[in-house]
């Protein structure tokens, strides 16, 4: 399992790809498979861990990041902050050298396109979960060169970014249901959880809540690149009562907010390839109000586990109908389609098919 190294596996708060890697590893080990996880130091897993970088990139020591690039007069070397591109290449190379020298059946990469360039240099199959990275046109050159390699889409919608790849399955992301306990008793507030980026629609969530006359809790990461968006469109509405920012929360801190929310808002502005927030909310028995973009129509059953809307006006109109949603249907939807066991079963099927083909058998 070749994990991203931006966050530890599993992450404490943000880090959806790392969380998916953690869930797959734990479930595979529980099923009796031998798993080696290549990840950043500080990761925790029931699998064998190979720590390839000393820190997750997002948690790198500040004093090292602040180092000025300059020549060292004693050695003549140019020194400065860490080069994450080099560190990621070492991360991938470490995995590939272990594969070359070891006894592995398959490599599962969650690293955009960056591991693909090694795929024809190892003896076992390398399957890539893109996590939506085909959305970036700049990556298409590598994808075109290796489009015959096996890919797994995390939704059917994801395939629209690059429909000519060799997709061997769609496997929905799955969550650890024990972290999101079911709760049928709801309080009277709406919740938005996610990055405060324009495409995530936090500003739309504020407008929906204000126009519906319902309190809104906002949770998530404020990235420096989007600080102006937060300052201009979110912060002026914060009053600690009608609209409240509760911070970037851990999963343990966020789960109770999911459980008690009347509904979770996902007013996205892009074709998001999946939506863990929607799945986590549904697992707690909480309906989801979402824009019908990307994978959300595959996650939310309109009228049964939530509602899809095309505009802020339509979202406001749907809010009184939330009372018609049975929380048990929301939970059941996740148990059947978006749990860690369901996800892992999908990947085991992929692994079996690819290893049988590699061995010369019928898939």
Task: Explain what you see.
The chain has 2 domains: 16-174 and 340-358, Glycogen Phosphorylase B (Rossmann fold, 3-Layer(aba) Sandwich), CATH 3.40.50.2000; 177-337, Glycogen Phosphorylase B (Rossmann fold, 3-Layer(aba) Sandwich). It has helices at residues 16-30, 62-65, 84-101, 140-145, 202-212, 227-234, 251-260, 276-283, 296-299, 312-318, 327-337, 340-358, and strands spanning 36-40, 48-53, 70-71, 78-79, 107-109, 126-129, 150-153, 166-170, 190-193, 216-219, 243-247, 263-266, 288-290, 306-308. The protein is built from 12 helices and 14 strands. 33% of the residues lie in helices and 15% in strands. By secondary structure, the chain is of the alpha/beta class. The longest helix is centred in the last third of the chain and has 19 residues, at 340-358. The strands form 4 sheets. A 6-stranded parallel sheet has the order 11-10-9-12-13-14, sandwiched between helices. A 4-stranded parallel sheet has the order 5-6-7-8, covered by helices on one side. Strands 1-2 form a two-stranded parallel sheet.
Query: Strand percentage, roughly?
Result: 5-15%
What CATH calls the topology of the largest domain is Rossmann fold
Oligomer description: single chain
Cα shape: globular
Uncertain spans = none
In whole angstroms, the N-to-C terminal distance is 22 Å
**How many helix segments?**
12
The class by helix and strand makeup works out as alpha/beta
Enumerate the strands of the largest sheet in spatial order, edge to edge or round the barrel. 11-10-9-12-13-14
Number of domains: 2
- Mind summarizing the main beta sheet? 6 strands, parallel
Q: Provide the helix percentage.
A: 25-40%
Q: Please give the CATH class of the largest domain.
A: Alpha Beta
CATH architecture of the largest domain: 3-Layer(aba) Sandwich
The ordered H/E elements are HEEHEEHEEHEEEHEHEHEHEHEHHH
Extended strand count = 14
Mean pLDDT: 95
**CATH 4th-level superfamily of the largest domain:** Glycogen Phosphorylase B
- What gyration radius follows from the Cα positions, in whole Å? 22 Å
């Amino acid at each position: 399992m070749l994990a991203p190294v931006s966050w530890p596996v599993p992450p404490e708060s943000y880090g959806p790809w790392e969380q998916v890697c953690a869930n797959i590893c734990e479930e595979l080990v529980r099923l009796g498979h031998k798993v080696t996880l290549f990840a950043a130091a500080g990761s925790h897993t029931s699998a064998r861990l190979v720590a390839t970088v000393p820190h997750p990139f997002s948690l790198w020591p500040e004093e090292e990041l602040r180092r000025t690039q300059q020549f060292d007069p004693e050695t003549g070397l140019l020194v400065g902050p860490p080069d994450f591109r080099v560190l990621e290449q070492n991360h991938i190379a470490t995995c590939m050298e272990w594969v070359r020298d070891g006894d592995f059946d398959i490599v599962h990469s969650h690293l955009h396109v960056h591991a693909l360039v090694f795929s024809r240099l190892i003896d076992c199959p390398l399957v890539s979960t893109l996590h939506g990275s085909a959305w970036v046109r700049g990556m298409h050159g590598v994808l075109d060169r290796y489009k015959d390699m096996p890919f797994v889409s995390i939704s059917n919608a994801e395939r629209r970014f690059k429909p000519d790849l060799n997709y061997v399955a769609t496997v929905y992301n799955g969550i650890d249901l024990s972290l999101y306990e079911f709760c049928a008793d709801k309080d009277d507030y709406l919740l938005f959880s996610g990055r405060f980026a324009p495409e995530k629609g936090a500003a739309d969530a504020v407008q929906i809540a204000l126009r519906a006359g319902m309190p809104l809790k906002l949770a998530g990461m404020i990235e420096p690149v989007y600080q102006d968006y937060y300052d201009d469109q979110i912060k002026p509405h914060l009053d600690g009562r009608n609209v409240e920012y509760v911070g970037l929360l851990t999963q343990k801190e966020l789960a109770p907010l999911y459980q008690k929310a009347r509904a979770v808002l996902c007013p996205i502005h892009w074709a998001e390839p999946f939506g863990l927030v929607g799945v986590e909310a549904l697992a707690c028995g909480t309906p989801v109000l979402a824009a019908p973009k990307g994978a959300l129509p595959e996650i939310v059953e309109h009228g049964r586990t939530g509602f899809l809307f095309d505009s802020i006006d339509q979202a406001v109109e749907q809010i009184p109908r939330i009372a018609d949603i049975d929380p048990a249907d929301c939970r059941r939807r996740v148990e059947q389609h978006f749990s860690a066991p369901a996800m892992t079963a999908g990947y085991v099927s992929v692994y079996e098919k690819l290893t049988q083909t590699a061995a010369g058998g019928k898939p």
